[in-house]
Design brief:
The complex is a heterodimer of chains A (287) and B (234).
Chain A (H helix, E strand, L loop, with lengths): L2 H29 L6 H19 L3 H22 L10 H22 L15 E5 L2 E4 H23 L1 H11 L1 H6 L4 H26 L7 H15 L4 H21 L4 H15 L10
Antiparallel strand pairs in A: 1-2
Chain B lengths: L4 E10 L2 E11 L4 E5 L6 H8 L10 E3 L2 E2 L5 H6 L2 E4 L11 H8 L10 H7 L1 H5 L10 H13 L5 E5 L7 H18 L2 E5 L3 H7 L2 E6 L2 E7 L5 H9 L2
Parallel strand pairs in B: 3-8, 3-9, 6-7, 7-8
Antiparallel strand pairs in B: 1-2, 1-4, 4-5, 9-10
Helix pairs in contact in B: 3-6
């Protein structure tokens, strides 16, 4: 096997995992909530994109902006109508409610879309590649995923660290009560955070639908990848999450290269190793 | 002259425990009111109730003629009520300057901005990029006070701001508070453990005992003996 090629392919796959993870990190960072239905929303976004492509004939990449807008509003609505009721106090209600959402989404998709595997077709771009020299080449589409993940990380870093909204996000995360006496309307703010998370989910969903063949039941796997990437990277910055996704991608690629059955396992092992050795995550900001 | 803030029969509970038993108090425009009393007398609960951190009966708190007891904290803040909370409670992930900026989140117009807060507390200027919780206790207290001033409040409530400050800084802070109140017509409610300090910096004082007002009056009229008697509830 070609190690360099394996690492490059893993890095590119890591871009997708980073996109999975950043949406989760936004919600955890602001609300300290884990959205158990995160993976199912990614799958839902893929079905939405598939439906839009089928209905309009648009190129999948052109569907992304539309999916971002639709999912952004959807996320705001989900937070304001459902998830805000679970915030504050015990950690269990958000887990139980999002777990319930996960079951509802999966079964609703099963019912309406059937369990047949689907995928979003990209046409010629699917197999297009850029030669790197030395017999190496990278696919155009995986490259687009990685670049998008980097752009999303940059945008999120700017939003969280350079804007008034981001300052309010961090303040609410630190001390919700004190932020509210400064005039922060926390429930609305939580709606904005989930809208941002869902916008990232929309991007991740479209890319996932192109990269993989998917069924309604894949959500929990994607939640796990997202969760692993967040933990590997460590909380505190989206660069960490991006790096965590890439580490996970490389681990899986190396595992796959060694034995086709070991890919996913290798990812899990790296995740467990990080939990053992550095539970705050490799790239966590240590105060 | 009608009061800026009135509480009428204000009560507060923590579960089965009742912390306030019908507090009647007034604060007039530009007035400085001290709250005196032992730990657990209900002073902080009184302030957090006014700030909207806990729900009260609608009519039990009236600000500028409007009942505000049932409002959300954010709506109370928008009216110009700011609190320097007990224990400072700065935002640890925010820098000093961001903490101050959070105080101005409502964008209320008024004399206070970053520049003026840095003039009041010059020590903060050079630390403005540092995480707020990396500062010394006294400097953190300055950030907490500055953050409340940044709201350009009409009513400024301070919960034990002298805690952790050197006597010199305490004097400075109260002098600044006096200027804020007299020059800008800001009203203040100050919880202060030091009875002498509380008397000299305030126009009027209320003594809290076990959730009741046990004594109130003009600060100059209240004798040390009367306060001591009220303080210990004898």
């Amino acid at each position: 096997m070609n190690w360099l090629d394996t690492v490059i392919q893993g890095t590119l796959l890591g871009g997708l995992y980073a996109l999975f993870a950043m949406g989760l990190a936004v919600i955890y960072g602001v609300m300290k909530q884990i959205n158990i239905a995160h993976g199912d929303f990614i799958v839902l976004a893929a079905y939405l994109a598939l439906g839009i492509v089928a209905a309009t004939g648009l190129h999948p990449f052109l569907v992304i902006p539309l999916a971002i807008v639709v999912f952004g509003f959807f996320g705001y609505a989900v937070q304001r109508t459902i998830l805000n009721r679970t915030i504050g106090g015990d950690i269990l209600p958000p887990l139980v409610v999002t777990y319930g959402l996960s079951i509802v989404i999966e079964n609703a998709l099963q019912q309406t879309q059937s369990a047949d595997p689907r995928s979003i077709k990209l046409g010629a771009l699917e197999t297009a590649s850029v030669p790197l020299g030395g017999g190496l080449a990278v696919g155009v589409f995986p490259l687009v995923m990685l670049v998008t993940a980097i752009v999303v990380a940059i945008v999120l870093e700017i939003v969280f660290n350079r804007t008034r909204l981001g300052m309010a996000f961090r303040a609410v995360s630190d001390d919700r009560e004190i932020a509210s006496i400064m005039g922060v309307r926390d429930k609305r703010l939580f709606g904005y955070a989930t809208a941002i998370s869902f916008a990232v989910i929309a991007i991740a969903g479209v890319f996932m639908g192109i990269k993989f063949t998917f069924t309604p039941s894949l959500g929990p796997n994607f939640l796990l990848y997202a969760f692993e990437a967040v933990v590997i990277g460590g909380m505190g910055s989206f660069w960490g999450t991006l790096a965590g996704g890439i580490v996970l991608g490389i681990a899986q690629a190396i595992g796959f290269a060694l034995n086709p059955g070991w890919g996913i396992l290798a990812g899990h092992l790296v995740f467990l190793a990080v939990l053992l050795v550095r539970p705050t995550g490799i790239f966590a900001r240590t105060a | 002259m009608s009061a800026l803030l009135e509480t009428r029969g204000l009560v507060a509970h923590y579960g089965d425990f009742q912390a306030l038993f019908g507090i009647d108090a007034d604060v007039h425009e530009g007035e400085r009111v001290a709250l005196i009393g032992s730990n657990g007398a209900g002073k902080s609960t009184f302030l957090t109730s006014i700030a909207g951190m806990r729900r009260s009966a609608k009519e039990s708190i009236v600000f500028d003629g409007a009942p505000i007891g049932a409002l959300d904290a954010a709506d109370v803040a928008a009216l110009g009520i700011a609190l320097v909370p007990e224990g400072r409670r700065l935002f640890p992930s925010l820098s000093v300057e961001e903490n101050l900026a959070m105080g101005a989140f409502n964008r209320r117009k008024g004399p206070w901005n970053l520049e003026n807060v840095y003039s009041l507390f010059p020590a903060l200027r050079e630390k403005r990029r540092a995480p707020a919780t990396s500062l010394s206790g006294g400097q953190q207290q300055m950030v907490a006070i500055g953050r409340a001033l940044m709201a350009n409040p009409r009513l400024l409530m301070c919960d034990e701001i002298s805690l952790g400050l050197s006597p010199a800084v305490v004097k400075e802070v109260y002098a600044a508070l006096g200027v804020v109140c007299s020059e800008h017509g800001v009203s203040a409610i100050v919880v202060e453990q030091d009875i002498e300090l509380a008397r000299t910096m305030s126009d009027r004082a209320y003594c809290f005992t076990h959730g009741f007002v046990s004594l109130s009056g003009t600060s100059t009229d209240l004798t040390r003996e009367a306060i001591s008697a009220a303080y210990f509830g004898v």
